[in-house]
Amino acid sequence: MKLIYERDLAPMKLTSLNGVRQNAATLALSKRLGISRQQMRKILIEKCDLMTLENLGPRYDAAEIQAESDEIGNALSLPHLSTATGILSKERADHYRSLALEKDADLSDIRRAILEEIS
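Below the sequence we write its predicted structure tokens.
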């Protein structure tokens, strides 16, 4: 007999991501990162708990509001990946922000590094 915490919750997480607001947030995240919806779903299922996924719509909306006043964070999707989903820790988000603030920083390279880290 498997206890609930020993089960693979991937099917439940996928069901949660099929919700209207969750699906919209997943699509928006995938567009921000330049990846397919399926890749974004895979990342979310692997990295997020069920409660985060169930509340993904409002969490994404809050990250959008936060990103409006944060040019670098918005360009790198840091509020979306740290605050909204918890995929990146605050320390890692701050690390990428400091890289972006360097003199000859290339945001596309930093985005690629973020994507490699979360995949």
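The radius of gyration is 15 Å.
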